[in-house]
Amino acid sequence: MKKVTVKKMIDKRMKKIAGFYNLVNKDCTEVNIHELRIAIKKLRAFLNLLSIGTDAKSLIVIHPILQQLYGMIGEVRNMQLQKKRLRLMCGNNHLKVPFKYYNYLEKREMVLIQQLHSTNFDLEVVRNTAIQSIDKKVGKDALTLYTKHFCETLNQLAAMPFDDKRMHEIRRLFKDFIYNERVFKKHKNKLPINFDKKTIETFAGKLGDYQDLFSSLYITWYFSISSYVDREIDLIMPVHNLILNQKLAMKASISKELQELVLNVQLL
User: Fold this and answer.
1) Is the per-residue pLDDT at 264 higher than 80?
2) 40 near 61, Cβ under 8 Å?
3) In principle, which of 1, 95, 122, 214 could form an S-S bond with 138, CB 3.0–4.6 Å?
4) Tens digits of per-residue pLDDT, 120-149?
């Protein structure tokens, strides 16, 4: 890919980000937030691709403005998902809804949305900084270097203790690869790697569900030690334990599946 092509791709991703950002500003729905997060992650994945094979000083990283935006909409999303999970779990398990906890989630969501809407995110600065960082064209070896990096990193992560942090890193590795695979496919390059795209996407989805359970447990724990708890501890803990059991069961399943997946992902 030539420099002009890279710039066009960055512009395309920035337009997507700007479009979904405007939607979030109008209506901070779960769907709009989800699409904005994906748009930001696609840009981040592409910038990571451009950095493969460069030294630390030449790395092209996501702009702090986008990092802040991504973090803020992520917090709103956590509150939205937690409310949905709370209703679902209580309904399916015939549990009484802890209304003080639910109200806390709603109030916290509204505060976060207000903070989001009152913050100015200059996306033009993000775009210009990314464009200025491009000082070379992406050569033919970029594809080989990226896929080699993917396989080496995957094997390293799979060999480490399988904790929550490792789960998150593996998911990000998979999702970034999928986003960039589409970039190369568009330019008629065949990926020099043996893997089933659908399998990778499905597994990345499971890791995403696992990460959501991790966030859900943290939110529940934080609330349980706060001043809001009062007489609701007996209502909160059953929900907390259900989430914990789901997380442990999913971790065992994912750990086994990952080992099998690693064996089937190799360079051609």
Assistant:
1) no
2) no
3) 1
4) 999 999 998 888 877 655 555 777 788 888
Q: How many Å apart are CA 26 and CA 129, to the nearest integer?
A: 26
Residue 92 pLDDT: 93
Residue pair 40/77 in contact (Cβ under 8 Å)? The answer is no
Size of the chain in residues: 268
Residue 137 tokens read as: 């064209």
- Quote the CA–CA distance of 55 and 154 in Å, as a whole number: 21
- Tell me the torsion sign for CA atoms 159, 162, 168, 171: positive
Burial 198-214 (b: 16+ CB within 10 A, else e): eebeebbebbeebbbbb
Tokens 């399988």 sit on residue:
162
| Residue 6: both structure tokens together | 């890279």
The neighbour count for residue 197, using CB atoms within 10 Å, is: 13
d(CA 138, CA 145): 11
Cβ atoms < 10 Å from Cβ of 118: 7
**Tokens describing residue 181:** 């695979």
Average predicted confidence (pLDDT) for the chain: 85
Q: Is 161 helix (H, G, I), strand (E, B) or coil?
A: coil
- Which residue blocks in the chain are alpha helix, DSSP H? 3-26, 30-51, 64-92, 99-117, 123-132, 141-159, 164-186, 197-224, 233-264
Residue-level pLDDT at 109: 96
Structure tokens at 142: 């970029």
The residues that bridge with 266 in the sheet, in sequence order, are 194
The answer to whether 40 and 19 are in contact (CB under 8 A) is no
Tell me how far apart the alpha carbons of residues 5 and 257 are, in angstroms, rounded to a whole number: 38
Q: Over the Cα atoms of the chain, what is R_g? A: 21
